[in-house]
Amino acid sequence: MKLIVLGPSLALALVAGWTDWRSRRIPNWLTAPALLIGILLNGLTGGWNGVKTSLLGAGLGLLALLPFVLMRSLGAGDWKLAGALGAFVGWEPLVTLLIYSIFVAGAMALILVIYKRRFRQTMRNIWGMLGSMFAFHMPGAEVSLDNPHSLKVPYGVALALSTLLFGIASIGKVR
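Now predict its structure.
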């Protein structure tokens, strides 16, 4: 990966993580241009192969998280951030970022559940979601982002922290 691509992807992730932390939103003015800039930078540094890598990364980010957006368990800003990050880093590093982000978001969720003393309610919600999956129907509104009483983990923050960890791990490999 080239520094000219890694640097802006880190900047994107950190700005998105900060805005998600502060306002629980990741704005379109950040993600839409970032997607195009990621494709452009990869095209400039890698030619048509770079464009292909970028489009595959963006497509993977958008496709992998789309079911969670449709189930209302993930916000659209988080979804678009994953697509924009995929446009910068490509599909292979994005897989690593998404796996890292699952663990980071899980740790954040566990801390939040313990802090808010909502362990039993969380376990009931998890069992309800699993039951919905096995019955092939949508879970109830109580486990949706639309529920004002549900605990919400800012996934953009988890994705930003994961990108930062990935960037630190990639420093020696950057060309």
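The helical segments are 3-23, 28-70, 76-89, 91-116, 119-134, 155-170.
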